[in-house]
Amino acid sequence: MAHYQSMGSIPPKRHTQHRRPAGRGKLGELYYEELMGEEGFSSDSSLLYHRNIPSTIVDARVWEMGDLSTTPNHPLKPLHLQPHTLFDDAKTVKKTDVVTGRRLLLGNGDVRISYAVAGATSPWYRNGIGDECVYIERGAARVETVFGAFDVAQGDYIIIPRATTHRWIPRASRKEPLRAYAIEGNSHIAPPKRYLSKYGQLLEHSPYCERDLRMPQGPLLAEDVGDKADAETEVYIKHRGSGPASSGGIVGTVHTLPFHPLDVVGWDGCLYPYVFNVRDYEPITGRVHQPPPAHQVWEGWNFVVCNFVPRKVDYHPLSIPVPYYHSNVDSDEVMFYVEGDYEARKGSGIGQGSMSLHPGGHPHGPQPGASEASIGAEYFDELAVMVDTFRPLDLGEGGLACDDGKYHLSWSGNRGGSAGSGAVHSID
């Protein structure tokens, strides 16, 4: 995100001496400068000033991350996944964290989509493969990072750059545990280029702007969170390695640091985590049905993220507000149905918390009767997060475990399985 920020104590000139306070007439010890940058030295970066040498570790061991294998969607079928069913044991949820408790739903060589319902604090963690975009479906948490902290809650996207050390602390709630939908790229995740000026400013036609982004609260040091600065700490790292081909070669390591990772006294630059709430997204509408790119919010390498928010719909006198049938010639489409009234879609089984996969090579669209039923509608009250990928998605162990097994029959009436529906269904 090329939007300059400065936080905490930094020297007037980069790559120059920055020292700790010391007694009168004495020089304090140097802080240790770390450049966190993208694409070598050729893209956005930030400079962080540490109390400790950031390379220091005293031990390393293997992190066994669980089943990251994937299974092809073959024979080719549209799928209905029900990730809520993966976390229906309250006792288990209390012990589950957002990092180690993720269940892989779908993935390919560019992006992995996971889901977690968590009640426990995560270990310190960084993803050494790519950026993460985590959407908060329900609940709330505090996310502590080396850049500062965030309070996140329902509807928040948090973008966490590659190699950012952080941890998740769910906020206890009797009503809702923390429900997190994690999109892990093998690349960087950022606003679409068409929304940005050549210098990185969000333009007037963008559906959100810099004012809508929440920056970290910081700087954040160990003593600020009630921990000891010299506390030996484990950091879980997800990275590339010689893991099995079925897991994409993804492996994990745990590094032991002789100090607490929250030791950054100041930083500045254009690379940092930030939060955007989906309710601040201004939908783009038109006289006739707008295609999915009108709903885009983020992009990564070979995938995009869109959100469908409550909005007025098509106002041409002969408009059909629901989407036309469309073949995903170049992409697989994943829709996560967060809020809205999907109860009428009894023929498809889709409801709040559902996910659909519409694979490339298969035309999809509204349920039978939905086009006629939508005529005259002026407003759709719905919220969904969509990921489109430009390489086929395989199923992870979580996806296999929560597939309803019959969604592909939902357009065919009673033949072969579940019946169709005449419900209004606006989601693409």
From TrEMBL:
InterPro entries (alphabetical): HgmA_C, Homogentis_dOase, RmlC-like_jellyroll, RmlC_Cupin_sf
Biased composition (Basic residues): 12-23
Residues annotated for homogentisate binding in this entry: Y342, H364
Segments crossing the lipid bilayer: none
Residues given in the record as Fe cation binding sites: H326, E333, H364
Residues of the active site: H289 (proton acceptor)
Region of interest called Disordered, as start-end residue ranges on this chain: 1-24, 349-372
Cellular component terms (Gene Ontology): cytoplasm
GO molecular function terms noted in the UniProt entry: homogentisate 1,2-dioxygenase activity; metal ion binding
Single GO BP term: L-phenylalanine catabolic process
Alphabetically ordered keywords of this record: Dioxygenase, Iron, Metal-binding, Oxidoreductase
Homogentisate 1,2-dioxygenase C-terminal domain segment(s): 320-411
Cofactor(s) the protein requires to work: Fe cation
Similarity comment: family membership: Belongs to the homogentisate dioxygenase family.
The protein's name in its UniProt record: Putative homogentisate 1,2-dioxygenase
Organism: Knoellia locipacati
The organism's taxonomic lineage, starting at the top: Bacteria, Bacillati, Actinomycetota, Actinomycetes, Micrococcales
